[in-house]
Design goal:
The protein has three helices and 21 strands. By secondary structure, it is mainly beta. It has a single domain, classed as Outer membrane protein transport protein (OMPP1/FadL/TodX) (Porin), CATH 2.40.160. A hairpin with a 2-residue loop joins β19 and β20. The N and C termini lie far apart (about 65 Å).
Length: about 400
């Protein structure tokens, strides 16, 4: 039983930011065009996609957007006809940007607040994997002050400091029953912070092609005093001391991107992006509890993630000045190796399709709408630590809206 308890308390999947947690919902125009934006200078979301392009923006602006995320997943345990489904919960990734600079100046400053990582999953308390996870709510919010400088008419550079705030709330059952037969419960919740940076360069060529290169660094998010809350039978209370806290450090990976913009006519904009995500930095997940007992020990769990990549393409058509129609799509590889797939986001290779509309409400005010459908390929796995075995099938639906005031 002791080994089972140590195993159940390892919190192995809870904070493992899989490829699926990299939501990339940086701006509605870019989402509508398949998440392309590294090689374009469209609006303040360039602070996120490529700060090197910010100095090329023709106007100052303030914008804010939200992209409600509906994650739908099912699990079919191996050898059965049972199917478990996640509850209908809505995550709310958001973004906000402000860009300013004198019109005659070769520089602009900006501030971005956005949520590049996050997830919300609820499997309930009656499913087969309840000892692995019942529910998880996590997010990482980035704050990025930015400076961008136009070195010449055809090239600009930019960079920003990143401060991130991460929060997590995980609940799971423990294989310990009280007199009424109810499982024990574990909850780990807390917040932490980390630091990083984002830098890019943007080129305009004589052949009417724009090129962008961007690098967002790794940010180690450290939770130094999270709350470890246990509800267990009274006879085991001394084995799970309360109050208790935990320490953990989780790497949010570096991303390298290159993008291209093509402008065949005044009405059309085409874009291509390629991204490489450095998940190799995520080797292990370790938790250090402030109070240990023979039952509750610190944990050390291998992850051994591999790097992931994505390929994206998108287009924008402006039939008239006030309207824009957008569409795109892409493919992203999983970072999670076989044997390490977990149900908080059952990660797999995925493809997606997007669309969007833009409309100028007034001379200085725009509204942008986007929608994304994302399909994760079904994945049959047996987790090497929890031995949870079966097939995951998942889809994601993401509408979005933003408002931009520009001058």
């Amino acid at each position: 039983m002791r080994k089972i308890l140590l195993f159940a308390l390892a919190l192995l999947p809870a904070l493992s930011f899989a490829q699926g947690f990299q939501v990339n919902l940086g701006g509605q125009k870019q989402i509508g065009m398949g998440h392309t934006g590294t090689g374009l200078a469209q609006d303040g979301a360039s602070i996120y996609f490529n700060p090197g392009a910010v100095a090329m923006l023709p106007e100052n602006s303030v914008q804010a957007g939200i992209s409600p995320l509906f994650f739908k997943s099912s699990f079919n345990p191996a050898g059965t006809n049972d199917v478990y489904h996640t509850a209908n919960k809505v995550a709310t990734p958001f973004s906000g940007y402000a860009v300013w600079g004198p019109k005659s100046a070769p520089w602009k400053i900006g501030l971005g607040v956005y949520t590049p990582f996050g997830g919300l999953t609820d499997w309930g308390r009656q499913w087969q994997g309840k000892y692995t996870i019942e529910s998880l709510d996590l997010k990482a919010i980035y704050f990025q002050p930015t400076l961008s400088i136009k070195l010449a008419d055809f090239v600009s550079i930019g960079g920003g400091f990143v401060y991130d705030i991460g929060t997590v709330d995980l609940q799971r059952a423990l294989p310990l029953s009280d007199a009424s037969g109810n499982d024990g419960q574990a909850q780990l919740k807390g917040h932490g912070h980390g630091f990083g940076w984002n830098a890019g360069v943007f080129f305009k060529t004589e052949s009417h092609i724009t090129i962008g290169i961007d690098y967002r660094s790794k940010a180690n998010t450290t939770i130094s005093s999270g709350d470890a809350i246990f509800k267990v039978p009274a006879s085991l209370a001394t084995s799970f001391p309360q109050p208790n806290t935990f320490y953990a450090s989780i790497p949010l990976p570096a991303t390298t991107s290159i993008g291209f913009g093509f402008y065949p006519t005044k009405q059309w904009t085409l874009a291509l992006d390629a991204n490489w995500v450095g998940w190799h930095s995520y080797k292990v997940l370790a938790f250090d509890y402030a109070q240990n007992t023979p039952t509750l020990q610190d944990t050390y769990s291998p992850r051994n993630y591999r790097d992931g990549y994505s390929l994206r393409a998108g287009a924008q058509f402006k039939p008239v000045d006030r309207w824009a129609i957008r569409a795109g799509g892409g493919y992203a590889s999983t970072a999670v190796r076989d044997g390490y797939v977990t149900p908080e986001v059952p990660d797999a290779n995925r493809y997606y399709f997007t669309g969007g509309l833009g409309y100028s409400i007034a001379r200085k005010l725009d509204v942008d709408l986007s929608f994304e459908y994302e399909h994760l390929l079904s994945r049959t796995q047996t987790n090497i630590e929890t031995q949870l075995s079966g097939t995951f099938r998942s889809n994601v639906y993401i509408p979005g809206v933003s408002l931009t005031y520009h001058w």
